[in-house]
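A sample copied in:

***
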Amino acid sequence: MNIFGAMYDKTMQWSKHRFAAFWLSFVSFIEAIFFPIPPDVMLIPMSMSKPQSAIKFASYAAIASAIGGVIGYSLGYYAFDFVKYYIELWGYQGQWHKAVSWFEEWGVLVVFIAGFSPIPYKIFTICAGVMQMAFLPFLITALISRAARFLLVAKLAAWGGEKFSAKLRQSIEIIGWSSVGLAIVVYLILS
């Protein structure tokens, strides 16, 4: 079944759309609050299709993510009972407890690490608010870590460019189905 190829082609088509930068920024913003899909799925194809704009795209994503982080922080600070319901609903309890223990142990350094972590960023932004982390260090660290991550991703994708895009397209079904299989195995192990 070849579904990932069609999805890849559509994503590459959307990455060249005139409003792609807006949607990248929007996804980066909402991902720091509640959205489950990281902005990398847009940033990578956009940077591959327009390598000369990769730094600009990464900057948009970083700024929007930091602003979304402020909203996530505020939700944790002012509305944790509301947020707790969704943490449980979406099955993030284990990740939540891990984030809390990291905050207790390392403080603001966790926000920097979170910018690169596979644990959803929204967990850390909300947790920073719940833990009542000092706001200015949170904001500065969030901006630096997200900028570093998105710049790294964008520059690597731009470096590969259209040649990498063509090679990736050839292997996308194997990569896609392997990712699904890995996700199922991880889910079964962690359940």
Observations:
- The chain has one domain: 4-190.
- DSSP finds nine helices and no strands in the chain.
- Residues 4-190 form one domain.
